Amino acid sequence: MVIVMGPDATQGDVQAIVEIIGTAGGDAFVSRGVSRTIIGLVGDVAQFSALDLRGMRGVADVMRVTAPYKLVSRDNHPERSTVRVGGVPIGPGTVTLIAGPCAVETPQQTLEAAEMAKAAGATLLRGGAYKPRTSPYAFQGLGEAGLRILADVREQTGLPVVTEVVDAHDVELVASYADMLQVGTRNAQNFALLQAVGGIGKPVMLKRGMNATIEEWLMAAEYIAQRGNLDIVLCERGIRTFETATRNTLDVSAVPVAQRLSHLPVIVDPSHSGGRRDLVLPLTRAAIAVGADGVIIDVHPNPEQALCDGPQALVDDDLRELARVMRDFPPLVGKNPAGDVLASA
Q: Any idea where the DAHP synthase ferredoxin-like domain is (predicted)?
């Protein structure tokens, strides 16, 4: 069961409902989004039936949601949501480009990549300070030093920062630097981490686990929402299949399926799915065509020297074509480039 609070509901109104649910023997989880607050009720529905929840002050609606992912479900929130990251919209009316280096290496490399990304139309900067790698001998990231570099580059370019957090103990530290926290595919079912990012008060990008079904992906998002955060963006980044011709298999069908089941924005990572520079632009076009709310793309000034994923990073002519795609393709599917929306605002 889900209680939707009205826009004029006060903190006292919310607390009153939490207390009455507790008295009835249930648990109430409060989740706050940009435009409204939702209270998810856990317990035997029958025990809540005698309560006049609709009559309580501040309550706009009470709904019984049968989907296991109650707070992120379209049953709970029929209209699709827009998440704002440092003022940049990610949602149904826009296509947002998030771009930058897969890994932060040096201040100069990160600044050059950010400027390349911005010239291509990016409105958010991605960059990894912590890098969970398959091999323990591969570059693991600069840690807090990388976060400081990202913060400095944000000051120089004006691009809000999206960066990955890999450990629940680091959530507070990463959130002190980042505008959006990313949970990567390897941590998509790290439930302690999901709960930690859910309680920190920053937007979260949740990548689909490489072996996860769409329902498991949405249930992972529910862990974040249940801890009070509805500002979640889902990212389809390719799944593991029998195919070896690409790094991962981009499941383009996951975009409309997830958008039908959930009100959360859905973006695509064409870099980590294809794994090759020549595949990034075709997969970007496919992502926009299928209705994705954005893409996250690797950019590097010297990919042959990159410490992480150089073969998939875009450069030069690729970025000029990316700029054209981001300008021309969104209107074909009834959307606007997020940069145009910010400029007009």
A: 1-66
